[in-house]
Amino acid sequence: MSDDHLRLRILGSSDSVPRAWRACSCYLLQSKETSIIMDFGTGALPRLRGAVAYPKIDAMLISHMHADHFVDLIPLRYGLKYGPEFREERLPLWLPPDGTEMLRSLCAAFASEGPGDFLDDVFDVQEYNPEQPLHINDMCITFTKTIHYIDCYAMRVEVDDRVLTYSADTAPCDRVIKHAEDCDVFICEATLGLTPEKGMRGHATAAEAAEMAERAGARHLLLTHYGSKVNPDDMHDAAARVFGGRVTIADDGNEFRV
Question: What is the pTM of this model?
Answer without folding.
Answer: 0.96
